[in-house]
């Protein structure tokens, strides 16, 4: 196993933790795929594609949550997401064009990237995504009930 989930990685929100575990699972799968004997490049590319697609969905989910719970730094966090997306999409493009290979170095980059995303950036919004804030905070509550069914 290349990355191991640790309890300290929890941001305190079950669904977000579940998605983070899935991200880690994809990086671990990529690591395992490096040892593939048959169609190695194909398997690696498919796994990388899955990781990237899942990351983009995960970021979108986080952005909706940060918005609903009015996390004060959500714009800053969004910028970080866009920058990370750009980085991995560029990597994907280089690999597709044969200008880069998925090597252990790439895996180390992805590991640091996932670790930093969870342990540093997401840890910051964790305390804002609480049940108390949802129950007590009227604007948040109203926003949640109206979204995504608002017709405005
Ligand atoms: Fe995250």
Summarize it.
This protein has 152 residues and is an all-alpha fold. It has helices at 14-33, 40-68, 74-96, 104-125, 131-136, 138-146. It is elongated.
Can you characterise this structure?
The protein is mostly helical. It has a single domain (13-146), classed as Four Helix Bundle (Hemerythrin (Met), subunit A) (Up-down Bundle). It is 72% helix and 0% strand. The chain has helices at 14-33, 40-68, 74-96, 104-125, 131-136, 138-146. The radius of gyration is 18 Å and the shape is elongated. The termini are far apart. Residues 147-152 have low confidence and may be disordered. The chain binds fe (ii) ion. Residues 20, 58, 62, 117-118, 122 line the site of fe (ii) ion.
Layout of strands and helices, then pairs:
Elements: H1 14-33, H2 40-68, H3 74-96, H4 104-125, H5 131-136, H6 138-146
Helix pairs in contact: 1-2, 1-4, 2-3
The chain binds fe (ii) ion (FE2).
Would you tell me the overall average pLDDT? Answer: 87
Bound small molecules, by name, code or SMILES, are:
fe (ii) ion
Unreliable segments (pLDDT under 50, ≥5 consecutive)?
147-152
Any idea what the radius of gyration is? 18 Å
Q: Under CATH, the topology is which?
A: Four Helix Bundle (Hemerythrin (Met), subunit A)
CA-CA gap between termini: 48 Å
User: Major sheet: size, sense and barrel closure?
Assistant: none
Tally of discrete structural domains? 1
Q: Overall 3D geometry?
A: elongated
Q: CATH H-level name... which superfamily?
A: Hemerythrin-like
Q: From the helix content, strand content and strand pairing, which structural class follows?
A: mainly alpha
């Amino acid at each position: 196993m290349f990355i191991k989930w640790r309890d300290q990685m929890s941001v305190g929100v079950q669904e977000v933790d579940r998605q983070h575990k899935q991200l880690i699972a994809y990086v671990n799968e990529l690591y395992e795929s490096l040892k593939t004997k048959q169609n190695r490049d194909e398997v690696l590319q498919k796994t990388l594609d899955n990781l990237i697609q899942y990351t983009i969905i995960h970021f979108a989910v986080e952005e909706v949550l940060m918005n609903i719970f009015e996390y004060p730094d959500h714009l800053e966090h969004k910028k970080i997401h866009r920058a990370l997306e750009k980085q991995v999409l560029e990597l994907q493009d280089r690999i597709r064009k044969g200008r880069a290979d998925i090597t252990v170095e790439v895996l180390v980059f992805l590991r640091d990237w996932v670790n930093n995303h969870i342990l540093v950036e997401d840890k910051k919004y964790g305390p804002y995504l609480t049940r108390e804030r949802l129950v007590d905070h009227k604007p948040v509550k109203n926003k949640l009930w109206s979204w995504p069914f608002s017709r405005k």
